[in-house]
Structures are given as structure tokens and as C-alpha cells.
Amino acid sequence: MGFKDYCFRKSLWVFHFGGASCNNCDIEILDCLTPRHDLERFGILLVGSIRHADVLLVNGSINTRDRSRLIELYHQAPKPLLVVAVGACGCTGGIFAEGITFAGPVDAIIPVDAYIPGCPPKPEAIISAIVKLAGKK
Amino acid sequence: MAVNLFFFSIFPGLLFLAVTGAFLSWFDRKISARVQFRKGPPLLQPFYDFFKLLLVKETILPKHGSRFIFLLAPVLAVFGATMAGVFILLPVLNINTGFRGDMLVIFYLLTLPSFSYILGSLASGNPLAAVGGSREMKLIISYELTFLLLIAAVIMKTGQHFDLKTVIETQQAGHPFIGSISGVLLFIAGIFCIQAKLAMVPFDMPEAEAELASGIYIEYSGPPYAMIKLAKYIMLFILPAFLVALLMNGMKPGIGIVWAVLKILGVVLLLILIKNTNPRVKIKQAFSFFFIWMNLIVVVAIVLIVFGL
Asked: Which one of A59, B38, B73, B130 counts the least CB within 10 Å of its CB?
């Protein structure tokens, strides 16, 4: 792992995109930033602007209206960018997979680097995914 | 010439200011984390952030807007912060520049980063950045008068000497200005001015994570954003250093170096604690806070100085 790559893995700034979520995953993601789990130990920050983001965190089922916005956000972000799909809806569609407004799981729209399954995934699972992502070559 | 180049680029200049400022930025994040009962980032985190932005990330230029000014603004911010830092640190390190009236130059150079943020945000063509830029303008209007009055008060206390070296020598010969009533009042006003200059939380309306999504910096990515981070690191170091030089007798040689470091850390700690225990004020509240209360405090201090207190 070179110096550039090491710096990138040690400082992942996360932009959170919530699709048509039931908010359970959002709560678990916010849980990761609380004193108990504290993702800032790994250099992870939540940023407000997609221009500063290194990780695009997508949760919730993506419906036809979210689809164009997700693609737009993906193109607005500076590369390299990692995409993480959180929760059953983000990974596969979950219980909404048969719905009429469902526009495909995240990896049918943009390339995904990590999947965190669960409905909702526990904060420990999210941290484990982040650690694996930071060690990934 | 070579000595000047060394001053501006290495020792009290860019490299030293950047490294010290980055460690102070870590101190800021670590103390904020401890205040919130978190563990906080590792020691080298600011360096990881900086090198990631500088070396790894892509630069995206705005489609509608002035690209030249958009890219010039971060460089201008780093330039202003570095120049101000050199002019502040040379007298503190007891190196005679022979420059009379450098306090006013420092005052103007310290506003340069804020002005360049405004330029950059308005050049980016983003409406949220424009809102942030106009807020930053109002913030500058509100705190600059207080800051100028503060410097004027220190100049009066020294006996009409306009150079920082004489200010420090006067304090080291007598006793630090903060030991008097007027000094304490000036220190209070100075702390709030620095808070507003650094756009820390009670006065962070230009950035406004919550509603503007980091406002004035919203369009910056990659190396230009790394430059902005660098300017912010440098400002976090030189503004407390300036306050220490103005009111708390700068740095004496020998064991005094440890004291100077502790004084700067103390001022930064105070800033961080204010940042972590206060909500953001509205721009109107910030305006009246500085224009009525802080100016009143400084004017009272000036009156006390006239009576020799």
C-alpha cells in the first residue's frame, strides 16, 4: 500500500444518501458516530457537501425518483470514490424489491464497493465493514 | 535574500506554521472528542486529511463561474496566513526585522484569508456558497472594528509604539498586559474576535454544516480544498500566537519557550471549550454582540488605559 493510498484509507469522509428509507438504517448509521462507537477514531467524518466526500453511503430502497439523483450525486463526487450500500434495501431491495416504483438495488445503478446487509445492520457490522473497506486494496 | 526566503518558506514560515497548525488542529478535534466522551482521531489525522486531498482527490471546477478566481482564492488565503504568521513570529522569536508599524500590516494580512474565501465562494457560482459568502462579509464587518480597537488599545498601552517587537519588549521589561484590568477586558474581546475570525461555532454561520452544507467551501474539492485546510491550520496557530504576543508577553528564551507553548495551548483550549459549549448565534445577534458589547468592552479598556489601569 503506497503513501497516497494509505492517506486515503486513513481519512474517509462520508456523504450520506438516504433513498426511500424507513429510517432504521439512518438511526444505526448515526449510532456509529455516537460516543459508544465513535467512527472518528478511524478518521471518518460526516461531510455536508458531496464535493468533499470519499465514501457515498447509500441506504434505503432506490425508487424511480431517487435513481436520477443518485446518478447525479455519483457524477458530482470527486474520484476516487467508494460506494457503500447499507441495509437489506440498499443491497438487494429487501421487501420493496417487488414494488412498482422500485428502480433496482444500488449496484444496478452505480458500482458498489461494499455491501452491509441487515435490516437494519448493527453499528458493529457497519464498523466491521468500514475496517474491511479501509484495509481493502 | 536567502535568509528571507528561509524565513518565509521554512522556519517561522510555511512549513513550520503548517506542521504546528496541523497538530493544533488535531488538538482541537481530540479535545472536542473528549468533551463529547468520544475517543477522537489519531495524532497524524490532519496530515492524512491534507495529503489525501492534495494527492489523491480529483479537482472539480465549476461550470458556471470564474475558474481562475476560484483557483486563485485558496492560494491567496495560504499566502495571507503565511505572511501574517511570519510577521507575527519574527518579533516573538526576538529576531529584529527593523519594520516599524508591522501591527497594521498584520491586521490587514489577517483579513486576507477571509476575503479570499469570499472571493472563492462567490466565484464558484453556487447559491449556497453565495449565502455563505454574504454571511462571511457581515461577520467581517462585525468583528473587524473590535479587532482594530483592540490593537489600538495595545498600542496606547505600549506608549504609541506601532511595532510588535516593542510591544513584547515593553511587557517583558515590566509585567504582561493581561495582569491589569484593561488587559483582562482586552483578552475577553480578543478571544471572541479570534473565535469569529476562525469561524468557530458560536460564529460559524459562513460554514453552517447544518443548513448550508459547509457554505463557502461547498464547491471546493481536491488540492484547492487542501489549500483551504492548510490556511485554516495556519490561522488556528497564528491568531492565538498573536494574542499571546499582544497581551501575554510573547516568548522569553530558555525555559520561556515551554511557557509560550503552554500559553498558546491554553488560549486554543479556551477557544475549543467555547466552541463545544455554545450554540450558533444568528448573524444579527453576532452583529449586535460585537458592535455593542465587545466594542463597549474595548472602549472601557481604552478609557482605563488612559487612567493608567
From this structure: B130
Please report residues of B whose CB lies closer than 8 A to that of A41.
38-42
Q: How confident is the model at residue B300 (pLDDT cuts 50, 70, 90)?
A: very high
Q: Is residue A25 part of a domain?
A: yes
- The residue assigned the cell 464498523 is A127
Q: What is the DSSP string of B128-162?
A: HHHHHHHHHHHHHHHHHHHHHHHHHHHHHHHTS--
The residue range of the domain holding A54 is 10-135
Q: Any chain A CB within 8 A of the CB of B221?
A: yes
The whole-number pLDDT of residue A136 equals: 66
Domain chopping of chain B, boundaries: 2-306
Contact check, Cβ <8 Å, B221/A52: yes
Structurally, how many domains does chain A consist of? 1
Mean pLDDT of B230-234: 91
pTM score, two decimals?
0.89
Residues of A in contact with B225 (CB under 8 A): 51-52
| B178 has pLDDT over 60 | yes
**A96 found inside a domain:** yes
User: CATH number for the domain including A77?
Assistant: 3.40.50.12280
- Output the CA–CA distances (angstroms, integers) from residue B84 to A28, A94, B108, B176, B258, in the order listed: 45, 57, 9, 23, 23
Q: Taking CB atoms and an 8 Å cutoff, what residues of chain B touch A6? A: 48
How close does chain B come to A53, measured CA to CA in Å? Answer: 9
Tell whether the model's pLDDT for residue A137 goes beyond 70.
Answer: no
Contact B240, B260 (CB under 8 A): no
Q: What is the pLDDT of residue B9?
A: 80
